[in-house]
Task: structure prediction
Amino acid sequence: MKFSTKSFEGIPPVLSIENLTVGLTGNPGAKPVLNGISFKIRAGETLCLVGESGSGKSVTSLAAMGLLPKSALEVTGGKILLQDRNLLDLNGRQMRDMRARHLSMVFQEPMTALNPVMRVGQQIEEVLNTHVKISAKEKKQRVLDIMEQVHLPDVDRIYRSYPHQLSGGQRQRIMIAMALILEPQLLIADEPTTALDVTTQRQILSLIAELQAKHGTAVLFITHDMGVVAEIADTVQVMKHGELVEQAPVETLLRNPQMDYTRKLLQAVPSLTPRPARETAPVASALTVQGLRKVYGSSGWLVNREPTNAARDVSFEIPRGRTLGIVGESGSGKSTVARCIMRLIDPTEGSVKVGDLEIATLGRAALRPHRRHIQIVFQDPFRSLNPRWTVGRSLVEGPLNCGEDKGAAMTRARELLALVGLPPDAIDRYPHQFSGGQRQRIAIARAVAMEPDVLVADEAVSALDVSVQDQVLKLLDELQQKLGIAILFITHDLRVAAQICDDVLVMQKGRVVEHDTAANVLGNPKHPYTKALIEAAPGRDWDFANFRELNAASA
Amino acid sequence: MIGYIFRRVLAVIPVITIVAVFVFLLLRLTPGDPAAIIAGDAATPAQLEKIRTSLGLNDPLPVQFATWVKHLFQGDLGISLISNTSVSSMIADRIWPTINIAVLTIILSVLLAVPMGVLAAWRHRTWVDYAVMSFSVLGFSVPVFVIGYIFIQVFSIELRWLPVQGYTAPSQDFAKFLSKAILPCLTLATIYVALIARMTRASMLEVLGEDFVRTARAKGVSETVVLFRHALQNAAVPILTIIGTGFALLISGVVVTESVFNIPGIGRLTVDAILARDYPVIQAMILLTSALYVFINLLIDVSYSLIDPRIRY
Result:
């Protein structure tokens, strides 16, 4: 692992935050959201702000931009100095002048962060319209110029495109172009690669590094991904509950973390080394998929579109009590496969057998009694539970639909809550009263309540912090051992796949490119695409949990 | 784009056909002899026979329908039973006042309501927001004729600023048209201002919470640009839907206002026709308003795709 070793001795800070405190608006007695944060970033330096969700990373960045939601949060003390000017003293107009000229921000989700009804070229140009007075021709030239700098292909066409016509990576390049066109001294990047595929993430990270080197920009990089930290940070700040826990140059922090919290955070990072596969006893297959194919958008009335093969020739088998992971980038067809198996969408052709029962061709009504044998846990626990229903009602809905007695179902729901590690009183509470990890436990309990043979987990831990991720993965493992469920685990995260899967299937563009045991796929990949995926995983040479190089153990 | 519009226009054909069949059957399938209904109680058998022949009532139904549709295409909507003049010319005389009033009303409503809604959303949960919302509730709850009479009492009788009633065509004297039309239009506009302002506020509130609004602010653009350039266009689809439906409702629903302000529009034509059982006129009015609804819906659908490039069917 090559860490950054740049020295910033004697370089004056671009941004210094001194004793910054942010509290809830109109509620001075409440515990502050940020409690006396101080740090500095110097020209050319990349400072990574890490911590779990709710630790105050984003609040810090929004405070610096002057973009805190006024009705909810306000700065109650401290200074934010950008080259000796305290941003907190500026009025609205002066602060607007600073944005994009002296400090800019790139956001997490490039799909929603761009205005969907405005051409991207105009959106970049708007920065110039707002801040500088030059001719229209010159403006356009500068926009095309920065678009070249962020390595967008065919800039004339992309200039006229709308966001939905571009890929995720291209949209994030547009965001970066917008942020850097006026060469600000400070760039704040708030989880800029979290929503991107690993290979795209790698490109965006190197693009930021390249532009930073070229313009000497100071970068405040917010992330929860320790792999990314290892790749790009000069300095790391660890945050917890609105306070700074530890600050150190990257290598020092990863090798010698001083604080317990930092150590715990690093130990929760799942390892890329696959866990030892479980023994394969010859047991009956719980789910058998053969030649599954899904085609979208064949021609209809007056419409003639090229049909898309979202999935083709997908075949696999999961024995009881084992876990198969499907990995691949967005658009590879992994979720399509999950939905076909669930019969949330109808496969175009192929066979899906749960036990011995063919469900791919069953009609809606005939399928209903069999639905309980195969259940799903979705990615986002904030949206997959009905916010107006108590947890108990969500848990018993499925069993009641299958004709179970209400009293028995409620008793069972209480047992399930205990099984997934939630208190019994959770049954009368509402989803918003729980954290993300707890909600995902509820979602799992809901799926397990149906006593399924197969559990499909579609990116079930991707929205969670690593420490919570670890707990949920352990829970799935426990449930599997107790109940003997077969799990189909869909993920884009190779580290997660390495931790939970016995076998791994790699998909690309709707096809299976590799299918073998987890140890073989991740340890000794055959297909170039699998190799590229592993290659792109950030921080892959570092063993975070043991604070050392990955090969140090064997060496 | 062109292909999309073409497909949408094609899809209008079955709707209009169904309406036409319904309107045609309305008279033919009413219980009793249509000729007797038309001729009235005092008609002689000879008169009845004459009416039957002139309406083609002795032909089989499909033939009658074909003849009727043929006449429709020639712009012939039949002859009024009361005034004995052609229905198309009666409508042509009366439609312009109605359309002029409706257009002015919608323009007034949009000019008032959209800024109100935007402001209310921007200053969410402040007195501005509460004022707009209170006005909106009031606008919904007070009946149109009450508002109309209050306006007449205040502006025409007490202040003597504007005429009490009447209508002048804008082509004749535009200033006079405005002075006479402004009260009925404001009266009609009240409810649409309430409706559109509410819809604008709700739609804007949603959009203002979105990431790209934060991006726009992070670029340093002014609040005006954030609101009207970035947010409003994204909030426009539901607002436009309300405006379109509002316009269609206006044309067919101006009966009360036209009576209060004595405007010779199609609202009064319809009322008179219904009271006098003037079937050909009623038929023509149903056909006309349905066609109008369909056309306005088409217009709304097409404008969606102009506002939002992601909408492609």
About this structure: The radius of gyration of chain B is 24 Å.
